[in-house]
């Protein structure tokens, strides 16, 4: 162990949130801060998720920071939806432009973070033997970064290669001539399957739950659009930060029942042709009224049946058991069309569940599928997984993983009762995954930075939230979720239901970014209501 280094703040994670938090504390407040990052490069989610077809399904001009006008003008996206390598290039450009690298420790995993009640400081250790004493401890670990590998018996018996999409090898995977199994048809599987199918000899897709997906209609950005996005950056940012999902378009202020059947069909057709999440924003009640949702859902089912030529396969793909967008809807590039390929076979796990992995492949209840490669597109231990994996200890030796054993408890998704001076960027209880992430991250980092500025100016040593605030916020999170159809899906990762044994609590704040921002601003205006300070 090396000597303890005194520092103002330790940040864990060098993705979108950690890098902006570093920049904000260091360059805006003149504080000392360091980012600890387990990966060998910056980028967070976009450093790890390198599976074939990995893209963002937010449009590129909205999937970026807006805090620097110069950067918005300088950076040029090439496609409507950016691919993983382009996003990673962007984040590396940000690290270079703002000279962040000297304060980012790569290949360094935080091991323990313990709050010392005698000094009101966090003692943080790393796997490299470093020790830091920091006033502030900020987690920037992402919401979808702890890979969920299902406990299917026999994985270690498999003689071929297997990969989880969230921990994809940097050198890539050569699928040429290979028989491939893909398990999982969430956003990731739906992005990866068409690309793998175009390279492999044969692909068997193991579907447990059929999923809606919206066409992306990817295209290269025209010079005209790039110019428009730069010239209208302020307006675009205004739209993103004053709506529900942080996207660069507003939800239409009309009910699905305000229009005739013909008019509705026309609107859906136009948005389907346009592609992307605008479809979800066509009517304000798609996610709040089951009857409204049924209309949108039926339109998508009809589209699936139109695209997929084999009626049995079309039935399997369109037999969807939950409301549209109540699980995170994927955006795809010819996903349903892929099932018209000769080399793609769909297995219905609802009828024939996986029994085990064997030396040769995947054994379901009715047959063994021999494959060379298995791809687990099985998602993440979302929102809390990365946080509880870390050894974080607050007041009176309270361990985060114990405190959250019945589900996460936070105030505003920003702080946890009993964990003073610790902030959780996009923590559970904030809009995070229900939003386009960069504006949600900027809002959180700005709030945390302003709070720290306030503390430094007033000479305050400690900020912490209370059990009562945690209870109050949990009620708010549940109440706004219950205004929507989101909690009706019992097998969603929003509830933690995808990880066996995980407590099932609705985790993100479903009230939308604009409403949430107002709540945070009101809390500040009322002298940080719900937090306590000590000097
Ligand atoms: O994970 P998921 P994901 N046996 O949990 C199946 C974001 N994202 O990585 O639905 C068989 O959604 C599981 O089946 P079921 C985005 O927020 C963003 O796809 O549980 N199957 C499901 O089909 C997204 O929502 C982008 O029945 C098993 C799949 O695996 C989030 O990441 C791109 C199984 C997992 O789907 C997670 O998406 C990609 C088992 N034992 C992802 N266990 C962007 O573009 C699980 N499954 C920004």
UniProtKB/TrEMBL annotation:
<dbReference type="InterPro" id="IPR050775">
    <property type="entry name" value="FAD-binding_Monooxygenases"/>
</dbReference>
<dbReference type="GO" id="GO:0004497">
    <property type="term" value="F:monooxygenase activity"/>
</dbReference>
<keyword id="KW-0521">NADP</keyword>
<keyword id="KW-0285">Flavoprotein</keyword>
<keyword id="KW-0274">FAD</keyword>
<keyword id="KW-0560">Oxidoreductase</keyword>
<keyword id="KW-0503">Monooxygenase</keyword>
<protein>
    <submittedName>
        <fullName>NAD(P)/FAD-dependent oxidoreductase</fullName>
    </submittedName>
</protein>
<comment type="similarity">
    <text>Belongs to the FAD-binding monooxygenase family.</text>
</comment>
<dbReference type="InterPro" id="IPR036188">
    <property type="entry name" value="FAD/NAD-bd_sf"/>
</dbReference>
<dbReference type="Pfam" id="PF13738">
    <property type="entry name" value="Pyr_redox_3"/>
</dbReference>
């Amino acid at each position: 162990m090396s000597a303890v280094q005194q520092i103002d703040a330790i940040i864990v994670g060098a993705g979108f949130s950690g890098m902006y938090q570093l920049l904000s504390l260091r360059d805006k407040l003149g504080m000392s801060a360091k980012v600890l990052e387990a990966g060998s490069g910056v980028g967070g989610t976009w450093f790890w998720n390198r599976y074939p077809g990995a893209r963002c399904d937010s449009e590129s001009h909205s999937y970026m920071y807006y805090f620097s006008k110069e950067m918005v003008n300088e950076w040029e996206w090439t496609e409507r939806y950016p691919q993983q390598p382009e996003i990673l290039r962007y984040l590396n450009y940000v690290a270079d432009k703002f000279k962040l690298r000297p304060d980012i420790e790569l290949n360094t995993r935080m091991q323990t973070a313990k709050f010392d009640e005698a000094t009101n400081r966090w003692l943080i250790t790393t796997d490299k033997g470093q020790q830091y004493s920091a006033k502030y401890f900020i987690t920037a670990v992402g919401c979808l970064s702890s890979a969920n590998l299902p406990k299917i018996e026999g994985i270690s018996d498999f003689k071929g290669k297997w990969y989880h999409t969230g921990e994809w090898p940097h050198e890539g995977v050569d699928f040429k001539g290979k028989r491939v199994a893909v398990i999982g048809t969430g956003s990731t599987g739906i992005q990866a399957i068409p690309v793998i199918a175009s390279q492999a000899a044969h692909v068997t897709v193991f579907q447990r739950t059929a999923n809606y997906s919206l066409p992306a209609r990817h295209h290269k950005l025209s010079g005209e659009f790039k110019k428009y996005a730069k010239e209208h950056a302020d307006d675009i940012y205004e739209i993103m930060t004053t709506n529900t999902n942080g996207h660069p378009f507003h939800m239409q202020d009309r009910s699905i029942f305000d229009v005739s059947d013909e008019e509705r069909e026309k609107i859906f057709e136009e948005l389907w042709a346009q592609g992307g999440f605008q479809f979800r924003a066509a009517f304000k009640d798609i996610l709040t009224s089951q009857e409204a949702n049924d209309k949108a859902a039926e339109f998508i089912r009809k589209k699936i049946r139109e695209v997929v030529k084999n009626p049995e396969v079309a039935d399997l793909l369109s037999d969807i058991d939950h409301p549209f967008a109540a699980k995170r809807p994927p955006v795809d590039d010819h996903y349903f069309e892929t099932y018209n390929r000769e080399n793609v076979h769909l297995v219905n796990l609802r009828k024939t569940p996986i029994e085990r992995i064997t030396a040769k492949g995947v054994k379901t209840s009715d047959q063994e599928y021999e494959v060379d490669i298995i791809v687990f597109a099985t998602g993440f231990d979302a929102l809390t997984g990365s946080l509880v994996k870390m050894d974080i200890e607050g007041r009176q030796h309270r361990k985060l993983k114990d405190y959250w054993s019945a589900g996460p408890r936070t105030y505003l998704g920003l702080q946890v009762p009993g964990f003073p001076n610790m902030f959780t960027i996009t923590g559970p209880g904030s809009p995070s995954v229900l939003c386009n992430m960069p504006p949600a991250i900027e809002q959180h980092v700005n709030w945390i930075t302003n709070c720290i500025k306030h503390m430094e100016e007033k000479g305050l040593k400690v900020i912490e939230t209370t059990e009562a605030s945690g209870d109050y916020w949990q009620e708010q999170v549940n109440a706004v979720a219950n205004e929507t159809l989101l909690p009706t899906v019992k097998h969603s990762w929003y509830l933690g239901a995808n990880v066996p044994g995980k407590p099932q609590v609705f985790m993100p704040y479903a009230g939308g970014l604009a409403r949430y921002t107002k709540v945070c601003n009101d809390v500040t205006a009322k002298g940080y209501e719900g937090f306590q300070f000590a000097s």
